Amino acid sequence: MKTYPTAIYLAGPIDGISIEEGCSWREELAKSVPSGVLLVSPAHAYLGTVNTANAKQMDYLNRNLIQNCQGFLANLLGPGRGFGTVREIEFAVLSNRFVAVAGHDSLHESMMTYDFPIVDTLMEGVESIIDRVATKRNEPPMGLPAFLFPQQRDEDGDDRED
Q1: 70, 81, 121, 150: which has the fewest Cβ within 10 Å?
Q2: Is-contact 98 133, C-beta < 8 A?
């Protein structure tokens, strides 16, 4: 049986913070996720290119990335303004993605109408998404190429039939 990655879009503020602040939490999280999880970082794609002249193109790209991931994790724990992040959360919910938001207790009241978990840490968010996606791991993600993980190949490197 083929197993496909769980792709998780990483949303978080990029306004009012440095490039390092916008990217470092994503890089740290990438060191901790289990095998078979693909993290999609839009912030890394925009290094040095965030400006109002290309906002429409960036919005279009982000929406496509969100639609092609099974999970969506928003980081509202740190500094920065999250105007775009809130719009991305709304789009992910409307696109039926599995959403988790890492944030402080005050979010429980302001976002309580949504049907997604608000967690205390980023890893809790990843675990929540993995749990919700687990039942669909044998279906290829929309728009993402299917591949086999190394443990699904035989000794000759050929795809194994289960």
Answers
A1: 150
A2: yes
Domain containing 107 equals: 6-152
> Does residue 138 have a pLDDT over 60?
no
Give the whole-angstrom CA distance, residue 153 versus residue 37. Answer: 18
Measured CA to CA, the distance from residue 12 to residue 138 in angstroms comes to 29
Q: Regarding beta strands 98-102 and 71-75, do their DSSP bridges make them parallel or antiparallel, or are they unpaired?
A: parallel
Mean predicted confidence (pLDDT) in 128-143: 68
- Whether 10 is covered by a domain: the verdict is yes
Residue 30's domain is classified under what CATH number? 3.40.50.450
Write the pLDDT tens digit of every residue in 13-65: 877 888 888 888 999 999 999 888 989 888 776 655 556 666 677 777 888 88
Q: What is the CA radius of gyration of the chain?
A: 17
